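Re-running Phosphoserine phosphatase RsbU to confirm reproducibility after the cluster update. Everything else is unchanged from the original entry.
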Amino acid sequence: MPVNPADLRDMLRADAFGLVLGLLLILTGLATLVFGSVLRRRAVSLLWLGAFSLLYGSRLLERAGILRLSFDVPTAVWERIDAAMTYTVPIPIVLFARAIFPAWRRFWTSGAIGLAGFAVYGVIADATLDHAHSAGTVNNGIAIAFFVGVIGWVYRPGLTPSRELQALRIGALSVSVAAVADNLRGMKVLAFPGPDLEPIGFTVLIASLATVATWRVVADAHQLVVINRELDIARQIQSSILPQAMPQMRGLTVVSRYRPLTAVAGDFYDFVEIDTERLGILVADVAGHGVPAALLASMVKVALAAQRDHADSPAAVLAGMNQTLCGRLAGQYVTAAYLFIDIRSRMIRYGAAGHPPMLRSTRGNGEVDEVEQNGLMLGFVQNHGYTELQEVLRRDDRFLLYTDGLIEACNADDEFFGIERLKASLTAATARHAEDATDDLLTSVHRWSGRPAGDDLTLVLVDWNDRETT
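Result of re-run:
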């Protein structure tokens, strides 16, 4: 059907407000969706707000006569599209409210399910009756009841005054008055000239909700900065409680590697240097990760420091630490392994508390043995006694103490690296210097796993070279 220029100008003039507002809402919706996607979980509310803005702006555009004229689509199809959007458009704004008011999650979830059910009903009814907006009267009634409920909810007594509440009230009042007026006009209860008021009201609502959502995102970002700053301080503190240098004893080479899963960790290691020829080595693992585990790890250091008078006895050290930690770990526990090396007597003592076995190899032939002398985990049972084993310090001995993050590293099939692979890696590094051998072990684990670590990881490798003492 041909349209003369005068009719086209009149149509453009009549549609100008809807076109401009629709385009603005679509652009706003797209920008909000992109921004919310970048922020991910911290901005679910922005995703729903963007979806609503995009859907509502699209409905304004498709209602414009000049846009419909630009496409060779029957009017009945446009009306079906318009009806489907009308039934659907409230759903994302209700889901936005669900995300931004978690205390009322169940209420808003029920509302979203109800609206989704009605939208399905409306679309099916239109298709069955071959008539767009066949559920229009019901939709008008639902819309009026919904917006009256919104006004009652945001203006109910007992709410704590805040700038967020003030912004929500402005948006809710604007859209509710406009939407109720338009729906009453649609039901022919009211009659007044001029365009629909609802788009104006919804624009004010979107601006209000976007303001609230932005405030919350900014507040979350600020809180994240504060948390990161505190974590950085915690990282510095934890770093300060770890050994700042390796023990320097004639004939011994000691190497350590410490890889926390997060900024701070529950893994811990320390040395007790009794004199120039006697050394105690502790490797411990607090259950859990992050700040709570790191706080408990600092308690482990205090507990170890209190055992210096009997640092030559792993059994006494572990028993004393257990007494100190029992009742102070808030339901958590600690595994630990303690190795004592006496260079003068050419002797070692070893004991552990629920910890993976120490590995002992001879650099001459590469044979690797598991050394296990375990008791209960620390902090688990008061007055628990521990045992220790004593053996001769052999020529070219190599000892490996580690936390379970090393052997429980998983590959894509969720298979543990395991102690047998660790022993094979230690054998392969027989001829390597302690520093290089330690790095080789970590490389073997990372290559086999092929994915980021799932636990804190600590290891201490000790090489004995009796040639340096003769």
